Amino acid sequence: MPLTRHKALRWVARLCEIDRDTLGERWTTSHWLHDLPGKWELSRVATAHGVVQGFAVASRKANAVHIHRVGVDTPARGKGLGAALVGSVANAAEATGGALLSLKVDARNHPAIALYQALGFATVQSVGDQLLMHAVSHTVVTAAATRVAERAARSTR
Ligand SMILES: CC(C)(COP(=O)(O)OP(=O)(O)OC[C@H]1O[C@@H](n2cnc3c(N)ncnc32)[C@H](O)[C@@H]1OP(=O)(O)O)[C@@H](O)C(=O)NCCC(=O)NCCS
Prior knowledge:
Aminopeptidase, 7 helices, binds coenzyme A
C-alpha cells in the first residue's frame, strides 16, 4: 500500500526499527517525514496483521524516480517482500508514464545488490563504497511480477 505522510507519522518508530541494520546514515523521524517531490505517491509499505513488515521510500529526482531506502523486517526476509515492494514502486512510476529508476547501495550489501539485480537493475557507476544502479520501470514491473508468479507456483507444488 502507499506510504502516505500520515502512515509514516503513525508508524515512524516501527519504520526506524526495521531500518536499524541498514548500512550508512541512520534515518531519524525527520528523514521519514521529509517532503520530497512525488514521495507520498511513490513510496510503499507492507503490513501483516496491522504490523509493518517492510517499506520502500522513493521520490522524483529530475526525470528519474530515485529509491532512497528499502527494508524488510528480519523474520520476513527471503519471502519475496523486498522484490514486491520495489516492484510496487516501479508500478507507481509506470502509472505516471514510466521512468528511469535509480538507487545507491553499499557495495558490501550483497543481499540488496542481489535483489536489485534480480529485478533488472545494473550498476552504472561506482563512487567510493557506493554503487549507483539504474533500471527502467517497465523492466522492474515485469521482473517483480514474474518472481511473484514463480513463488506462487512453487508454493502450490
Ligand atoms: C535487501 C532486503 C530489502 C531484501 O528483502 P527480502 O524481502 O529479503 O528480498 P526478497 O525475498 O524479495 O528477495 C528477492 C531476490 O533478491 C535476492 N536476495 C535477497 N536476499 C538475498 C540474500 N540474503 N542472498 C542472496 N540473494 C538475496 C534473491 O535473488 C531473491 O530472489 P529469490 O528469493 O527468488 O532467490 C533485506 O535483506 C533488508 O531489509 N536488508 C536490510 C536493509 C537493506 O540493506 N536495505 C537495502 C539498502 S539500499
